[in-house]
Specification:
The complex is a heterodimer of chains A (about 100) and B (about 140).
Chain A (H helix, E strand, L loop, with lengths): L2 E3 L4 H10 L6 E5 L7 H4 L5 E5 L3 H9 L8 E4 L3 H4 L7 E7 L3
Parallel strand pairs in A: 2-3, 2-5, 3-4
Chain B lengths: L1 H10 E12 L4 E7 L2 E10 L4 H15 L3 E15 L2 H11 L3 E3 L1 H14 L4 E14 L1
Antiparallel strand pairs in B: 1-6, 2-3, 2-6, 3-5, 4-6
The chains are: A alpha/beta (about 100), B alpha+beta (about 140).
């Protein structure tokens, strides 16, 4: 089964149209799934914390990590679990299909 | 959902922003593109009738009303998921979209079309809303 999700790149284009290219920004992504969108926007960010409660998707995100994305941290957590441990502040929060 | 938005607001730097992406609630379409002809096969239903997307919109409205965020800009975009075959797409949905409901008639239409034209060119079309909100 070969599945291609948004090969046209409409989603990342819409995101960059709204926010610019996120150069130097810190981003909290909530519901990062398998990292599909993360890898498309994170290239020029300063830091990304990407939280995803589903273990399988989280594992795929880690397995698919491209080279040169050391600033991206994936956490296998939901919002409620992340809240008590976080004091970090972000320039941008991204709810990617997760609200 | 509203509590999550309040929590997110607390995690943002002064002047920080929130981007929310979620489906706009329009019916999701099965489509077939071949030789320039883009045909609607039928619609995908959700067992909860897409209610969570309306709830997400309502939560955003409430967060704005509460003074946590101001809406800067709203847009829409098309989001396509392509598969080699209808059955491949169905298997993907079974695994990843738990409340997806595919009507038997839609499945029959898709398979008939594939028999006539060969596999390939089938995709799922969603429309998504994307909003940029500024923390206040």
């Amino acid at each position: 089964m070969a599945i291609q999700i948004d090969p046209e790149g409409y989603e990342i284009r819409a995101l960059f149209d709204l926010c610019g290219d996120l150069v130097g920004k810190s981003v909290l992504e909530i519901g990062s799934g398998d990292g599909r969108l993360t890898w498309r926007y994170a290239g020029k960010t300063a830091r990304v914390v990407a939280i995803e409660p589903d273990e399988g998707k989280h594992a795929r995100a880690l397995a698919d990590r491209p080279r040169g994305f050391e600033q991206v941290e994936f956490l296998n957590l939901n919002l409620e679990s992340y809240a008590p441990q976080s004091t970090e502040r972000f320039d941008l929060a991204l709810l990617s299909w997760s609200l | 959902m509203v509590h999550a938005l309040e929590q997110i607001h607390a995690w943002l730097t002064p002047g920080g922003a929130l981007v929310d992406i979620h489906p706009n609630g329009e019916l999701v379409e099965f489509r077939h593109l071949q030789e320039g002809k883009d045909l609607l096969i039928g619609y995908m239903q959700e067992s909860d009738d897409y209610i969570e997307y309306r709830q997400a919109d309502e939560a955003i409205r409430e967060a704005v009303t509460n003074g946590w965020f101001g809406i800067v800009q709203t847009g829409e975009f098309e989001f396509r998921t392509w598969a080699d075959s209808f059955d491949g797409l169905k298997a993907f949905l079974d695994e990843n979209w738990s409340d997806a409901v595919i009507d038997d008639k839609v499945a029959a239409n898709a398979r008939k079309l594939e028999q006539e034209t060969g596999e390939g060119g089938i995709y799922l079309r969603e429309m998504a809303t994307i909003r940029l909100l500024r923390a206040l």
